[in-house]
Hints:
Elements: H1 22-33, E1 40-44, H2 51-63, E2 69-74, E3 81-86, H3 93-99, H4 104-116, H5 120-125, E4 130-133, E5 136-139, H6 150-160, E6 170-174, H7 181-192, E7 198-204, H8 212-216, E8 219-222, H9 228-238, H10 244-253, H11 258-262, H12 266-284, H13 289-297, H14 303-327, H15 340-349, H16 352-370, H17 375-390
Parallel strand pairs: 1-7, 1-8, 5-6, 6-7
Antiparallel strand pairs: 2-3, 4-5
Helix pairs in contact: 1-2, 2-3, 6-7, 9-10, 12-14, 12-17, 13-17, 14-15, 14-16, 16-17
Amino acid sequence: MAIVPSQLLTPPTDFNSFLGNTAAIEQLRTAIAQGRLPHSLILSGPAGAGKYTLALMLAMAVECERQPRELRSYSVATGSEGQSLAGFCGVCRNCTRIATAFNLNEEVDKAVAAREELREVDKKETRVLIQPHPDVLVIPPDPPQLLIKLGQVRSIIQSAHYLPAEAPRKIFILTASSFMKEAANSLLKILEEPPATVHILILSENPGELLPTIRSRCATVRLGALPVEEIEMLLSDRRHDVPPKQRTLIARLAQGAAGRALGFDLATYTSARADAMLLLHQATQEPDHTALFKMTETYRAGAEGQQKAADLLRTFTLLLEDLLLIQSGTPELVRNTDLRPELERIAHAVTFQWIEQTSRSLDQVWSGMRRNLLRNLSLDAFAGTLATTAR
Ligand SMILES: [Zn+2]
């Protein structure tokens, strides 16, 4: 779903351009100013909340050659007076190099393309890593499985043993929290005793998927959802192409994530949702096998198909959540506002148990995708379960 990787398409110039979550940001800036940013930190929050943008901003604040400070007469984070907040200059050699990594998707594409150029034997051994600065390493989930792999964690461990070369600290940013098992165990070792010059930041949409032993060794900072009204204002300010009546819809669908709202591609979403509705109708209407087959046929193997399937499943999850909101008597919170009458009809035709079971089957499709099965096959099976469990 064409989500922009960072809150802004150009590198931010200071922390004040970060939208929302003021208390959490101040808490982190205060910690950096006092030299006590945790060595292991989980930044959690929904997709598009700005986790990656914030991680790079924190990296800049730690590594900046000029170390600017901002004095707050009153701090939201601590409730105290005269707080000094860390900032970054954005123009020194450390800041500018780190800023080159702001467009995460583009950097990942470049790294994947470079790997494709390698000989077959080397390809297997090469993991996707992004290094904007000698002391800053960004570790995205490695395609096609999109998990963080052992080779990537080994790169962290190797590099962490050396002192920083050109900046005060070494910073490792893991952009997701889904790990291969051996990779998670290996990361645990360095989290047990991180070198004093090292900061490891794990960005997570769902910290629950991390090993409890990893979670317990990290501090966690959560980026909460922004209110719908705030996102609508942001859209009217920055997305002039979006007609006013679609702003509400996008604001709801972005689930409180500013970056997601700004980069929201309504056309792609609507098309994924049409397919998700077709699946949903398997449960409440006489199944239309021809239409279903035609639809699942369009979900092919490969990176593009995987993206398309991921969009479909995410959309389907939102629809299920809307059904729950209607069933629990809070239809005003429905996010697919334009489909509300249709969703109300479906919500009355299915049981709570059906929604629960369907969301479990959905988890299985996700993990099937992780194991890289043929996408259309697992979608067909999923559609089958929906039809049989509804009645
Ligand atoms: Zn700087």
